[in-house]
Every structure is written in structure tokens, then in C-alpha cells.
Amino acid sequence: MRVARPVHMLVTACVITIISAGCSAGFSAPAPISTPASWPSATNTNAGPAAVAANGIVHEFTALVQQDGPAVVNISATPNEHISTMESIWPPGATEQNPYLQFFRQFGPDQFAHAVADSSNAGSGFIVRPDGYILTDARLVANAKQVKVKLTDRREFKATVVGIDRPSGLALLKINARDLPTVKIGNPSGMKAGQWVVAIGTPYGFENTVTAGIISNTARLLPRETYIPLIQTDMTANAGDEGAPLFNMHGEAIGITLVAHAPEGAYEGISFAIPIDAAMQIEQQLLLHGRTEHGHLGVTIQDVSWPLAQSFGLKSPVGALINSVDRDGPAAQSGLRSGDIILQLNDTVIKDSSQLPLVVADLRPGASAHIQYWRNGGIHETVAVLDAMRGTTLASSRSGSMAPDKSGLTVRSLNSNEMRRAGVSGGVRVEQSTGPAELAGVSPGDIVLQVNHVPVSGAAQFHQKMKDAGNAVALLVLHDGHRMFVPIDLG
């Protein structure tokens, strides 16, 4: 990272999503997270490991780095996809260490500079539990066939991906080690624009690079990256900075770096971080269940400015203005439409559009959201039953999800909203498909309507029917709106 002037931008819309806990057992009791006894005042710059001059200017970060550096790790992930490497034609079999390769480079424009290509993705993470749990960027380790973690003491470990949460952009790793140093978890809600922050990352593969800057904004929406309002700083995030921790001057982690990309290219001179409180909520879900649930309201929103508030007849610019509604989404089914302004969801008053995604995030798919909204000069009310976000993995014990059976299927019961949208009166939704079921072509998201010509109405009934089946079973499956019988060999 390098310090640069902040670039101001306007994000006008964001897709509302929610996140909540899933259900998938199998993890041992976690070690406690290192947290301060009480949250320090964000304005008290005289406390903590950073050296502060009498005029309040920070002039040294060495104590902070010594305190927090050991808990920051370097991560390399090898993608599943094969990446071809360039080989020199002459001299034959040349490598970077071959002196003949260095000799021939002088006769051309460095044509052998990448004779040995590195196919790994490099980034950062930080230890949040002393028994080896590490928080990092989801895109860094997604679809990786191997993940390695290097500590500051030069020990290296193969890491297990505990869980990945793509909508938020976070992942949780586990290494086989104990008594590790951990970061202290801070309180990002107390941070203000203009305060100093420090990051430790891996820009362009340069391990444990320390940079400093100031907070530019505490709640910046980037709907293409995550539903969570982000911390914006005046530091530049480069390739390799994914997952780097962001610290306040008390040496507490307040965020995790997210390398964002503008629609027209990279953001120049700024960086973003997911607030640590939101990140740790997701960490808890991934730790306990290995996956998360996400809901979908089906709207895009924008801020209410003073001119807009006046045009809609509001006394002040509050709420989240809906500028589009998914035609078949929960919001449309509840009667919401473009031009409505959401003022309250359940017991939470919505002051601005950045608040709504996190309020919805406390709910889960199938939950009822009681919404107050402004339309035609008055307040109206409705109830929206939240849907499941496309591409997310559900594990709802509330809906009767169970472990995979001998066919390799994990299923859950459908809620009324899902049955109405699919045009069915029963069935179970496939959450995971492995083994014989995967070989037969059954995919996550499919709806199983019958087992051996007997209709099923819930997960418990489905698993009982599968248990009673012999070496072969025929499932009636609804796939992309089409029904088909799928035979599965259980022998």
C-alpha cells in the first residue's frame, strides 16, 4: 500500500441482502477471541501502542507493529484451474537459475522474464483464535485446491478452508497449531473520519508490509463487492492486500481489507475494509456451521437527499429510497414499488440507506420483515417474507435440514414463499449434492418432489423414504422449471 489522496465517489444503489446462521455441525469448541475489557474512546489518541506527540500527531508505529505483527499471516492459494507456465525455447530447459538464460536475455526485450510463472494467489489474513483460526478474503481462497499459511516466525502450515461467505467477501481458515498470537478485536463504530489507521498486508507479494493513513469515510457502500457498509481510507489497496487487517491507534483490529474494483477499473488512491464487528459475526457462523444463510429483499436503494425529501413531502432526508424492485422478489410480492421510502424495518428506524443492509442482515430467509414506508405523503405498512439470495448455501435447521444420506443429498423443507414461487405444494430443496446424486445430475437448488413415485413434503419424510429405498431410487426433480425423473444407483 502507498498513501495517496482520497478520491470522493458516489454510490447510488445497493442490493439488499441478509446474513444469518446456518446449520452444519462438526467443529470443536473454539478458543476464546482476544478482546479488550472495555472499548477505548476512539478520540483518546494518547492511549495504545502508537507514539503520539504533544500536538496529537502520530510519529511512530513500531510498538503497534510489534504488538500486532505476529498475528498477521501471509496466505498463498493455489487455484484448482491449471495455469500454464511459460518455458524458454532457447536455451532448452532453461530456468531462472540457469546462467545461459541470463546470457540470452541481453539479446532481447526480457522475453524470458517469466520463464517460471507463479500460479499462486498471494494475500494476507490474521489470527483471531489462538488454536489456529484465521480470517481472510473470500476471493483469495475460493476454489483453491491448496492453501498455505506462513507465520512471521517463518513456520508454514497447510490450511483448511472452514467456510467461505461470498456475499460479504470473507473466509475462515484453520491451521493445526496452538497458542498462537491473536489480534485484539476493536470497535469500528467508534471510529471517525480523519483518524489514523495502520494496515499490515502483502502488496504485490511483499510480505508484512506496514502502511499508515487516515479514515476517509466510515460507511461507504459498494454493492458490487459486499452488502456491508465499508470503512474507506486514503491508502491504496493493491493485489496481495486482500485480507490485511486494519488497526486503530490502540492496536486493535477494526477492519479487514477488501480489494475493490471500480466499474471502469481499479480505485486509485483509496482502499476499503469490512468493519470487524460485521466480520466477526460471520466468523462465528462459519466457525460453528461452516456456512451461512443469506436472505434477499429484492430491491435496490439510494440515499434520500434534501431535494428528494422535499419532492416526496418528507420533513427531513431519512430512510432508504427504492429505485427498483425485482419483479418476482419478496418486496414486489409485499406491494413495495419504486419510489417508496423505507422508514422502519421491524423495530429499527432506518436513518439512511447504508443502515438498511445490516438491519436486514440480522434476519434469515423465510423470516417476516415488517416494513414501514413512505408513499404519497403518508406512512404505510407491509410485511415481506425474505427470499434466499441466488448462489448462497442454506443450512436451515428451522426448515428441517439434515446431513447427507447415502445418495449424497442434503435437503431442507421449503417455506410457503418458495413453494409459491416454484408452483409446487410440497417437496424439498437440495442444499448439497455429492456422490451418487451428483453423478446422476442432481444439483443444489433443485427441488425433489417425489421419491419412488411417493410425494414428499419435508426433509424428515424425504430421508425416511431414502432410508427405506433399496439399491436404486427414482426421484422426480424440478430443475430450472422442468420436471424430470432421475434414477440414482445406491448399490
Task: Describe the structure in your own words.
It is a single chain. This protein is α+β, with helices and mostly antiparallel strands and about 500 residues long. It has 10 helices and 31 strands. Strands 1, 19, 20, 21, 22, 23, 24 and 25 form an 8-stranded antiparallel sheet that branches. Strands 4-5-6-9-8-7 form a 6-stranded antiparallel beta barrel. The protein has a 6-stranded antiparallel β-barrel with strand order 11-12-13-18-15-14. Strand 30 and strand 31 (about 480-490) form a beta hairpin. Residues about 1-30, about 35-45, about 80-95, about 105-120 and about 390-400 have low confidence and may be disordered.
Average of the residue pLDDT scores: 76
Oligomer: single chain
**How many separate domains?**
4
Q: What is the strand tally?
A: 31
Features:
about 500 residues, alpha+beta, Pdz3 Domain, 4 domains, eight-stranded antiparallel beta sheet, 10 helices, disordered N terminus
Short overview:
By secondary structure, the chain is an alpha+beta fold.
What's the structural blueprint in terms of helices and strands?
Layout: E1 14-21, E2 51-52, E3 58-60, H1 62-68, E4 72-79, H2 99-105, E5 121-129, E6 133-137, H3 138-141, E7 144-150, E8 156-165, E9 170-174, E10 184-185, E11 196-201, E12 209-220, E13 230-233, E14 245-247, E15 252-258, E16 261-262, E17 265-266, E18 271-275, H4 276-289, E19 292-302, H5 306-312, E20 320-325, H6 330-333, E21 341-345, E22 348-349, H7 356-361, E23 368-375, E24 378-385, E25 387-388, E26 409-413, H8 416-422, E27 428-433, H9 435-440, E28 447-451, E29 454-455, H10 459-468, E30 472-479, E31 482-489
Parallel strand pairs: 10-15
Antiparallel strand pairs: 1-19, 2-3, 4-5, 4-7, 5-6, 6-9, 7-8, 8-9, 11-12, 11-14, 12-13, 13-18, 14-15, 15-18, 16-17, 19-20, 19-25, 20-21, 21-22, 21-23, 23-24, 26-27, 27-28, 28-29, 28-30, 30-31
